[in-house]
Amino acid sequence: MSVESVSAQGFARESLAVLQHVIESARDDVAAAAELVAACVRADGVVQAFGTGHSQALVLELAGRAGGLVPTNRLSIADLVLYGGENPAVLDDPLLERRAGVAARIYDLAAPNPQDLFVVISNSGVNNVIVEMALHAKEHGHRVLALTSLAHTRAVPAAHPSGRKLADIADVVLDNAAPPGDSLLELPGGGSVCALSTLTGAMLVQMTVAEAAGRLLAAGERPPVYVSANVPGGFEGNLELEKKYAGRIRRTAS
Fold first, then answer.
1. With contact defined as beta carbons under 8 Å apart, do 37 and 69 qualify?
2. Cβ-based neighbours of 230, under 8 Å, separated by 6 or more
3. Nearby residues of 27 by Cβ (< 8 Å), 6 or more positions away
4. What angle do the packed helices 8-25 and 197-218 form, to 10 degrees?
5. Cα–Cα distance between 121 and 115 in angstroms, integer?
6. Do strands 183-186 and 144-148 pair parallel, antiparallel, or not at all (unpaired)?
7. Gap between the Cα atoms of 115 and 98, Å rounded
8. Residue 113 burial (10 A CB sphere; 0-12, 13-18, 19+)
9. CA 112 to chain CA mean position, Å
C-alpha cells in the first residue's frame, strides 16, 4: 500500500470495499442471525448483548437505541459495580476481563429468562470473559449469536482454559471481515492504522435488525421498536413499550 493510500480517501475507498464484501458474503449468516432475533422477540425474550473494550460500541448499536428493538439489554463489566455492589476500584484492573468467574457474575446479575438470546461481540473472540459468557449462556440453554473477526480469531491462540473461542461456541457467527489487529491501512515500514470492525460490525447489526423486523412483519407481528426520545412523544411512547419488559431491560444514563 502506498503512502498516498494512508489518507481519508484511502480509508474510505478500502473500507467501502470491505463493507460491500460483507454485505454480499454475509447474506446467509445475517438471515440465520435474524431468525434467532425474531424467534427471541416472538417468545417475549430479551436480546442480551455483551462486549468489552471497543466492542461495547456495537452493544450500544444493538441495545436501547432509536430505531432499534425494545427488548434488548446491555451487559457490561461495569455491571459488577452498578448492580453487583462491587467497589468501583475493581474496574481499575486492566486484566479484569481475563479473570475467571466475571462473566458468570454478570450473567447472574442480569437474571435472564430461558428464551433470551445472547449476542456476544468481540473482534478477537478469545478474551476469557467473552468465551466464558458464551459458554455460560450455552450451558443455561440460551442461543448465542457471535459477532467477531474470523481472520483475527484464526490467527491467534485460544486464551480460555477450555481451548475454545467465541466462534466455536456460537449457534450463528457474523464475520466482520476485519483483518487481524483490526487496522486497515498499512504503514510504510510496518504497522497499520484505522480500525475497521466498528463500521462492518454496525452494518451487520443493522442488517440483522432490519431482517428480523421484516420477518416479524411478514408474520403479521409488529416489531417493538424505539422512537427517538428527541422527537415529540418519543420518550413517552418508549416508556409504554418498555412496560412489557419491566425489570428485564436496563436503561441508564450514558
1. yes
2. none
3. none
4. 40
5. 19
6. unpaired
7. 28
8. middle
9. 17
Residues whose CB falls within 8 Å of the CB of residue 254, separated by 6 or more in sequence, listed in order: 60
Q: Quote the pTM value.
A: 0.94
The 3-class secondary structure across the chain, one letter per residue, is: CCHHHCCHHHHHHHHHHHHHHHHHHCHHHHHHHHHHHHHHHHCCCCEEEEECHHHHHHHHHHCCCCCCECCEEEECCCHHHHCCCCCHHHHHCCCHHHCCCHHHHHHHHHCCCCCCEEEEECCCCCCHHHHHHHHHHHHCCCCEEEEECHHHHHHCCCCCCCCCCHHHHCCEEEECCCCCCCEEEECCCCCEEEECHHHHHHHHHHHHHHHHHHHHHHCCCCCCECCCCCCCCHHHHHHHHHHHHCCCCCCCCC
pLDDT tens digits, the chain, 254 residues: what are they?
A: 556 689 999 999 999 999 999 999 999 999 999 999 999 999 999 999 999 999 999 999 999 999 999 999 999 999 999 999 999 999 999 888 888 899 999 999 999 999 999 999 999 999 999 999 999 999 999 999 999 999 999 999 998 999 999 999 999 999 999 999 999 999 998 999 999 999 999 999 999 999 999 999 999 999 999 999 999 999 999 999 999 999 999 988 76
Pairing assessment for the beta strands 117-121 and 72-75 based on DSSP bridges: unpaired
Q: Which three cell numbers stand for residue 216?
A: 416479524
How are beta strands 183-186 and 47-51 bridged, if at all? unpaired
CA distances to 90, 152, 223 from 218, in Å = 47, 37, 11
How many residues are given for the chain? 254
